[in-house]
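Hi there, hope your week has been kind to you so far. For a while now I've been wondering how a particular protein folds. I'm sending you its amino acid sequence along with the backbone structure tokens. Could you read through the record and tell me how the tokens relate to the sequence? Take your time with it, there's no hurry, and the full record follows here.
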Amino acid sequence: MKLVRTKEDLRTLRRKWIFKGERVAVVPTMGALHAGHLSLVEVAKQNADRVIVTIFVNPKQFNNPGDLDNYPRTEDEDAAKLAPYGIDALYVPTPDQIYPKGFSTNVRVSGLTEDLEGAHRPGHFDGVATVVSKLFLQSRADVACFGEKDYQQMLLVRRLSEDLDIETEVLGCPTIREEDGLAMSSRNVRLSLEERAVAPVLKAELDRAALAIRRGADIRVVLDSAKAQIERAGYDKVEYLELRDAADLMPVSNLDRPTRLLVAAMLGDVRLIDNIPV
């Protein structure tokens, strides 16, 4: 595993691989790696000859400065976790490699980004779209792996890659969960013991709601009930709990197409999100 700090060094590696006709995968992350990230690495290895994992804590996708300050930086630990996977490059660019002096370009994907996460985190998806565009162009990867846990983000990245003719195929990978159903997230370490005991209610209520909707129950009644149950269990606030079209996240009123239940809720000062297919 080669540690790479500059885009020039990354491109030098990439040119060697292109010359050999090798297929390249990239797994963009912000570090603080857990089993969910490592599952993306496994998928990348199955779909490419060479694998690049990137670590960059992107300031443009944090609408709360406190979240940016508190985000864990664990490069050494992350490198140790990646070592057994035999990846080819760990790209940890310095800020000037992504946002050099005078940088003034912003990438925005409309339609997919105004609702749900976009409504609660202003500017977040512009930051995601901008940094992902940079990483795709710097790595020139054939394929990129993104987790379905951040479902709206995955759709956004797929859309921007298609719209901008970036030759990077975006693979959606299943959400990895703890034994009690909680979706793995770097934020989970911030939960207190009491909060951690409450956290699995989010997935349990998604499952209950999905089953009721599949059986023909009134969608709005089911969602209102699930929201109340989540808050009754100890969550401070459910920001949204919605059934949406799985392809474009538009609201739906029946199951005549693939759909997705998506939720975001505050537990103490930790914001948790999750989603499941219906």
Q: What stands out?
A: The mean pLDDT is 96. The two ends are 40 Å apart (CA to CA). The longest strand covers residues 237-245.
